[in-house]
Amino acid sequence: MTLNVLFAALPERWEFYRDSLNEAFQSARLEVRLQQDFEPEVIDYIVYAPNGPVMDFRPFTRAKAVLSLWAGVESIVGNSTLTQPLSRMVDSGLSEGMVEWVTGHVLRHHLGLDRYIRGAPGWDPVVPPLARHRAIGILGLGELGQACAHALTALNFPVSGWSRSAKTIDGITCLHDEDGLRRLLSDAEILVLLLPLTPETENLMNRERFSLMPKGAVLLNPGRGALIDDNALIDALDSGRIANATLDVFRIEPLPQDHPFWSHPRVTVTPHIASETRAETASLVIAENIRRSEAGEQLLFLVDRVSGY
Ligand code: NAP
Hints:
Layout (H helix, E strand, L loop, with lengths): L2 E6 L5 H14 L4 E4 L9 E4 L16 E4 L17 E2 L4 H20 L1 H5 L18 E4 L3 H12 L4 E5 L9 E4 H11 L2 E4 L13 H6 L4 E5 L8 H10 L2 E6 L12 H4 L3 E3 L9 H16 L15
Parallel strand pairs: 1-2, 1-3, 3-4, 4-5, 6-7, 6-9, 7-8, 9-10, 10-11, 11-12
The structure holds NADP nicotinamide-adenine-dinucleotide phosphate.
The site of NADP nicotinamide-adenine-dinucleotide phosphate has 29 residues, from α4 and β7.
């Protein structure tokens, strides 16, 4: 039987995905008609992006699953019209990209590269400590947090990570609950936010939590903008508690022209480019999930609608 699969992402993404998805369907021996438009009632699966055209899932009466191309699902998880199972994207390309962004920015701050890249002429040597003496904290020990933790550990950084459930991961100090968070924050010289945005994590980094951090700590946020109370961060930067922040995600994107992050001398803004789903690898994940669904097997990377991620 031919399956009708709707590609419900931004139209400009079609040319990146069309061939990769069709090849992946073929390799999985799935007979698929992939299109950007169909009558909703004939659709079997929806390949979905939160910034794409579908917001109301009620007309998709035959759809068996919604397969997100994005890792973060905060904008769909509470959608009451969505009754089908929802899977999020876990993609090796997405993880690789995040590891590169995070290690790149950790090394920038660890080595103090700005001093020399932007520096005025002058012989003013400042030797950075070895990585083994620079404590890194990662909030979120999921797919991306763990991938970054392993890469940083391989560079000798001591890494602590925090998650909702208790974990044991070789070479990483794993913490959970409020006490664990306080411990992590009070040690972290460089803090990386890789949590999903949920009601529990919104504004997690508030005034009180910034005040727990060592003076002069660095913040990297490639997670979600609303994990941070923006005003608390500006105050923490102005007081010197936070020496530098590199932010990839924001409450409103694109970040509004008049937002103080743009002009703050110790904030680097990157425009939500830390990591992107890669069509070649992500298409294999989509095809595998459709194969599983058709075979009556459990979908990979199912979103728990109660916990919100
Ligand atoms: P994931 O595999 O679902 O991992 C989420 C981690 O956060 C898990 O360790 C989870 O704990 C922890 N967590 C969730 N709620 C928590 C809470 N209330 N308290 C403590 N820990 C909590 O997600 P992922 O694939 O690593 O992605 C993480 C986020 O990165 C995404 O949600 C998205 O927002 C962001 N992202 C950004 C970009 C970008 O380009 N900037 C690209 C991709 C993703 P448990 O392990 O106990 O469940």
